[in-house]
User: Fold these one by one.
Assistant:
Number 1:
Amino acid sequence: MVKEYELLTAETVPAYVASMLNLADKVDASTLVAEEVGDGNLNLVFVARDAAGGGICIKQSLPYVRLVGEAWPLTPERVVAEARGYSAAAEASPDDIPVVYGYDDSRYTLAMENLHDLVIWRTALNDGIMHPGVGAQMGRFVARIAFSTSLFKMDAGELKERVAESINPELCKITEDLVFTEPYGDYANNGVQPGVEAAVKDIQSDATLVANVGMLKTKFMTSAEMLLHGDLHSGSVMVTVDKDEPYGKVIDPEFCFYGPVGFDLGALFGNYLAARARAEVLDRSDEFRTWVGQLPQETWEAFEAEMWKLWPSRSEAALTDEFLALWLRSVLRDAAGFGGCKAIRRIIGLAKVSDIETLEGDDHVKAATAVLRVGARWIKERDSIMGSTRLGEIASEELART
Ligand code: SR1
Ligand code: MG
């Protein structure tokens, strides 16, 4: 039973920060000015600055889905899952996340470093701005968390405890429904703009595709390999503005739970695909289109290299180098399949993405149709995908014919 709690406003954030003893040395609460900047689907997000330029970010879980409203209640306890995700990342790959100051389970808030000089990666991608190296950074990030939270590094008994304590049923149910079920049927949350209906019909009437999505859904629900981020799309990464050495910070791990490693990689791949389709129809520069097109490969190669780098320090001695080679092949196939599912859901179902939604007319139809076709092929052809370059080749083929 969720207790009653007070929602913050920009006006009440300074007093709230002042009331939290652990935040006293982070900012001068007496001069704090806050603004609500949340543009995600679920939460309130406040950024606050003090007179000396110090900053803090306070994220508060609403007791419902922000995108839909109070008609869709959702546990605010998700802030505990988010804190767990950040904690695992802070141990394994601290530079890739904001510094978290703590969470308050009475108001369902999380206090963290204010990333005021970063922007959401999706926004930068939409604007045609390159961030060389961030795709590789994401691959290393997933590898480090996968290694440190899995059987590879963790004692078998501790692993079982971590799997049990990390269950996140309400958030997982959202993914099960919105990613794996609803796009393939007749659901109220679905809808596309005029001109995309035929491509949707192709998806929903493809029995082989639907069966393969079922395979991926069951894997998502039963394969407890690592503590996933659970929603690692380009809106869950913030990137630098005008830095010689660009970098990203991963945010929003509230969907975290123990799931298949390929799911986080697939989330990145599916969203890279949306960014690439946008870049193609808007005829961005050759340099940008080439860069965005190679992102799945960049992320995958960095993931693979980081796994091999970490491998000698594994604690599970029974797992050999040959095992890792086999495992990596199967993760790539999973990532292709999950990437296809993540791409398709953003076209047909609830919670669409600005990469495609802000395109108009023919541009929208072409980009949305190409994303659907590529997603379907990534899913159906995943068992024959032997290397990450194949993901880009399939995308090139479908973008050229759409
Ligand atoms: C009802 S929540 C819709 C989506 O927002 C989050 O970002 C997840 O992607 C979820 O599926
Ligand atoms: Mg989010």
Note: The chain has two domains: 13-112, 118-399.
Number 2:
Amino acid sequence: MERTLILLKPDCVERRLIGRILARFEDKGFNIVAMKMLQVTPELAKEHYAEHVSKPFYPALEKFITGAPVVAAIIEGLEAIRVVRDLLGATSGLKAAPGTIRGDYSSSRQMNLVHASDGPEASAREIGLYFRKEEICNFALTITPWLRASDEG
Ligand code: CMP
């Protein structure tokens, strides 16, 4: 079982897509084990996007990500890190395949609606940036036996 951090970005919140996009993860069978709305500060943005801080697009990215609230959530499930990124599609909404979240709702490289951790290290680091241990609910969905066979994990 894996956990991954998603951020529904300011464009998602402003476009009133929170419910529809969270539903995509629920529909797939993932469990949401933590969630909150918050305003990303410039300091948090620099920590979260540390690998991008020196890139030319970073100032615009920081202005965007701090421009309205975000919804942070932890998604749990089998191979959640990879599968959640597959559900999002390519970074640019113009390149993302139809049927993916970005392919269906975004036509931008920056305003691509949702961030998701890109590997186990990033997931652990990003979960730690947005959530304290006691904010995470450890529970299994009662419908789990109807989502996958018992020998699948
Ligand atoms: P995300 O998956 O959150 O990771 C970094 C973010 O930076 C990315 O989504 C986009 O919102 C943004 N981004 C990535 N590449 C570019 C780019 N070339 N120009 C502008 N924004 C970008």
Note: The chain is about 35% helix and 15% strand.
Number 3:
Amino acid sequence: MPKAVILVVEDDAPVRNLITTALKTNDYKYIAAPTGESAVMAAATHNPDIALVDLGLPDIDGVEVIRRIRSWSGMPIIVISARSEADDKVEALDAGADDYLTKPFLVEELLARLRATQRRLAYLQTDSAAGAMFQNGALKIDFAAGCAWLGGEELHLTPIEYKLLCLLARNVGRVLTHTYLTQNVWGAGWESNVQSLRVFMATLRKKLDAGPGAPQYIQTHVGIGYRMVKVE
Ligand code: CA
């Protein structure tokens, strides 16, 4: 298998070195970019597999870098940011980022995110992701028939719960923001419907809960949104 190429967008040299050293010792290739403009250029010329993007850059903002890359590429983007405020992460996710990591982070955590992203990429190339049938662990969705099962038992979902489940499944591995989910379920103008979203998400999760020890399919990101996890 060819080594994955990671674009590292970070203006802080010590942090950049920490990341590139970790990548090198873990058998990744990398391209380092210290500014936003050089990052957009590197993304276009080298077509990396995954981009790690710091939000606070000296020239253009990391969110702008994400928007520009997203205008032509679907490459997974993981935001690395010192900004702990949820709003910055939400903005980056709505601009098209897939995931985020808050500084300071452990190298192990970064490597785990990269592995999860690679699993997602590999999964997206399978029939299960491209076709009308979705499978993730014991969870199965037949998009064409509009049915879902958990461990062979059909799930009895309300139309809204089913819509939410499909959205999360079609974006498995990505953090979806409250705005993204409410807009796609209720339409534009309903972004403030976060309270309803919470209620529907709680009932959906209860229906997806197969008891102690069973995988948790949906992760909550407080103040940000939800993610369906790709289970082994
Ligand atoms: Ca920075």
Note: The chain has a mean pLDDT of 92.
Number 4:
Amino acid sequence: MLNPKMQEALNQQINAELFSSYLYLSMSAYFESQSLPGMANWMRVQAQEELMHAMKFYGFINERDGRVALAAVEGPRTEWSSPLEVFEEAYKHELKISGLINRLVKLSHEESDFATHSFLQWFVNEQVEEEAAAKLIIDRLRLVGDNGVAMFMLDNELARRTPMPAGGAAAEAAG
Ligand code: FEO
């Protein structure tokens, strides 16, 4: 059974993950408008992963006999000035999400809720990957600068990111 304080904090994290999904989908739409289909693909896959993160929290609250309470999701930004600006914002956003996960870990410890503490470790590790992935693309974009051919090649590379298999995502969400 979840205590009310922990439950409220986990519900807030569902909202944060849904907002992340919405933000990355908006970034994907921006890249579509800029004729950068590879980056649009990368962000669309990222949006799906964030939805999976939200569903992991959703599943966990229910499993602990808690009550999921969904709140309004804030509207994301829709315009950026360059691919670099988009990925810089994505990176900044991931740092913020890491901070939220760390706060949840701290709360679970304070509340001696060791089941939640254990559940959150997956997210602690995931955030390391999320930050590194965004940072790597920022570094690449800085190298590319305004070289059109290099931008075309990077876009082609990001087109190769594939969504997690449906079974895998469902298993992750349930787990
Ligand atoms: Fe769900 Fe990108 O953190």
Note: The chain has a mean pLDDT of 94.
